[in-house]
Amino acid sequence: MKLSGGDIEFYKWFDNDHRKYKSLKRLEAGTANNGQWTEIEGYWEEEPIILLSPNTIVSSKSAVFSNQILSMGVGAIEEFSPNRYRFMPNALLVLQPGVQTVSIGLHGEGVSSAETSDYVTLDFCSAVSAKFSVSSIEETDTLNKYYHRVVQVDLYVDGAVAGSTEVYVGPTLEPVLATVMSGVISAGAHTIKLVASSSRGIGTFVAVQEIETVSTMMNCPVVEESRVIALSAGFTSSRSYETTTEHITLLTPGMPAGGSWKVKAVNIRASYQCSASYVGAGVVTLKGEAGGVSDSLTWSGLGRSYELLVSLDALPSSMTFDVTGIAETDPPTVLIGNEASLYAALNFCIITVVWGRNTSSGGESTAIDLQQLSLTTSGVNNLAEGTVNYLAAGN
Questions:
Q1: Residue 219, by phi and psi: left (phi above 0), alpha (psi -120 to 50) or beta?
Q2: Same-domain pairing of 111 and 83
Q3: Selection from 34, 33, 70, 27 nearest residue 51 by Cα
Q4: Are the beta carbons of 60 and 93 closer than 8 angstroms?
Q5: Range of the domain at 31
Q6: Are both 48 and 170 inside the same structural domain?
Q7: What average pLDDT does this structure show over 302-328?
Q8: What's the burial of 377, exposed, middle or buried (CB within 10 Å: 0-12/13-18/19+)?
Q9: Is the pLDDT of residue 359 over 80?
Q10: Is a pLDDT exceeding 80 seen at residue 131?
Q11: Phi/psi at 225 (5° precision)
């Protein structure tokens, strides 16, 4: 131990010599608020070293950009009287400059114009870039022939146009991807929407406007009760029968991406593995129905696959396929007192939807999809103040 000039130092024998391994320093601890002068207790021979750690401070805020950081440090330190010191700490949650991308998914459609619903941005937003797709269709008097279209897309910020761009549609019916930017706006949370206004361009082009989407239920297990129809009946009078009905919930194919579509046709195809057994002659029927349209088939007792086919011009309100099995005597007296059985298991069920472009009665339509926003925050923004623990070390 060494006492020199009021300092106490401690030594140990290391590497063939006495070497200092610690010294006795004065420590003062306490708490301090952001931006406020805090006096350090006692008198100091020289300016102390200040160490900070969080005490009470918000670590992040929702509805604000994600580029948030905690900022802690000694903003200022001064000797306010002889050998007395005070300091002013920074204890802040800070939003730094940056860009954040947000997926949106807002759709609007109409005849010659369309607009999305409103979207409210994160707070402290100072610029917006909107990525969108737009489609515009106008039919001519010739089948599958369309006019080129010009679409002006306006980006509205808080009810006023903050940016515009023109998009040319053709020579296909597919939506066109584009971007529109706002420029600099005042920092804050803003209400955003896109408005598309279309007009006829120069020239025409030929395009087919039908797309098929398919949904399939394949390889349904025979042992699954919801996929099996089975009945057994003892016939005691002429033309007796027994029925069993199965309701299959159909997986409806989704609408094609981009633009506005309508259903032009729905085709349901169900394949069944069937078998029947009975004494004498008889009629065994399997009947399928969806949306008020039905199809039926008959077969002998031999096991084989049969298909039911139903075609509709619209998606039924209840997407179920009702299948009913019926066994009847034919002629009427042959099966009296005997039993007949019917067995049918679903192999697969396919529903195909034919979609056509959705145009108005005059053959014109416009649709816009706001897909993504890039939101910019500029400058450094203080989100919250806090309190820190401090440790003053020195002499």
A1: left
A2: no
A3: 27
A4: yes
A5: 2-95+384-394
A6: no
A7: 73
A8: buried
A9: no
A10: yes
A11: -60, -35
